[in-house]
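Tokens in:
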């Protein structure tokens, strides 16, 4: 039921008990856990040695401003660069979305990381936290590129996680820092923000991450604490049967539920399958909060495990890899970034 954060680049002895605790399904890695590709693979091996081969290992490897592993990995452009291509050449943008996803996912799978929390399918409508992480402001374009990205991740052996349901792009506030309230009615959200999620689900995305945003016209609780959003709309209305994942419980906007234990409980009660406790200082309380609770959907969680993957050497021998990297990283020049 939990995915937890670790402190550093090696597995501390004190963290062994966390990985063995009932209710802990996996680990979320960050830049603080990475110094090199060899170090990453050693850390992944250590996590699996202690927590078991079924332990999920994930990261945010979106590209652009949110790419936790950089040295030794392809420096991926933000998804907005793909959306900009769509405005002049839709077919090329669709290919680029698939290639971006394949490069990202195949590199992570070669390091035995199961999945990235990707793609961002929020609309690019000015949110401080989303920014260039989103494909486009137009729901139809974002939806088409989301489908392509999910296809590319699947080709790379990786499950896809659509985020941040039901749409974080149209409210200005950054939920990492403050409470975010989106006052729009449900029919407007259905017409706009839900479109990329629906299309991503139709491409068989395995999971959805739920936003900490409050939509008062629908529910007084943030979406991740809302059975109206998760059980009624996402499950019953949209028919989604995959895993529902919370955003990080340490974010400021998650404070509506109380302390760390209350946040974990509120997410699970609302219908989340996995709850993210990304900072080590909340892990003990989060683990205590799930003791005695039974996981309701082990099959949804197991669907997030990565498929059999290439080694890094065999990945480099794949001729399509070089072509895809050249095309994808060319977008960095447009964005003013330096390819790695």
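Residues out:
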């Amino acid at each position: 039921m939990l995915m937890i954060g670790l402190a550093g680049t090696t597995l501390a002895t004190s963290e062994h008990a966390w990985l063995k605790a009932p209710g802990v399904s996996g680990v979320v890695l960050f830049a603080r856990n990475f110094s090199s590709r060899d170090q990453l693979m050693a850390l992944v091996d250590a996590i699996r040695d202690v927590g078991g081969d079924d332990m999920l290992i994930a990261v945010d490897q979106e590209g652009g401003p949110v790419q936790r592993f950089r040295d030794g990995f392809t420096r991926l452009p933000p998804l907005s660069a793909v959306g900009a291509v769509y405005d002049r050449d839709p077919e090329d943008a669709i290919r680029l979305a698939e290639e971006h996803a394949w490069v990202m996912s195949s590199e992570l799978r070669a390091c035995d990381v199961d999945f990235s929390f990707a793609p961002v399918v929020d609309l690019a409508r000015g949110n401080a936290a989303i920014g260039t992480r989103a494909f486009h402001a137009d729901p139809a374009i974002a939806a088409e590129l989301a489908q392509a990205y999910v296809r590319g991740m699947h080709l790379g052996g990786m499950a896809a996680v659509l985020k941040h349901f039901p749409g974080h792009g149209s409210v200005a506030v950054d939920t990492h820092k403050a409470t975010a309230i989106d006052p729009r009615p449900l029919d407007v959200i259905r017409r706009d923000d839900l479109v990329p999620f629906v299309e991503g689900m139709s491409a068989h995305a395995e999971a959805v991450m739920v936003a900490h945003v409050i939509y008062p016209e629908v529910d007084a609780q943030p979406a991740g604490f809302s059975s109206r959003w998760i059980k009624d709309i996402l499950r019953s209305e949209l028919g989604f049967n995959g895993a529902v994942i919370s955003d990080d419980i340490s974010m400021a906007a998650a404070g509506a539920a109380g302390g760390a234990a209350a946040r974990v409980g509120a997410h699970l009660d609302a219908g989340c399958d996995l709850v993210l406790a990304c900072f080590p200082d909340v892990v003990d309380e989060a683990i205590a909060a799930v003791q005695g609770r039974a996981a309701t959907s082990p099959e949804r969680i197991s669907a997030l495990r990565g498929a059999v993957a290439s080694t890094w050497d065999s990945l480099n021998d794949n001729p399509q890899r070089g072509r895809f990297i050249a095309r994808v990283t060319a977008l960095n020049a447009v964005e003013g970034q330096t390819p790695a």
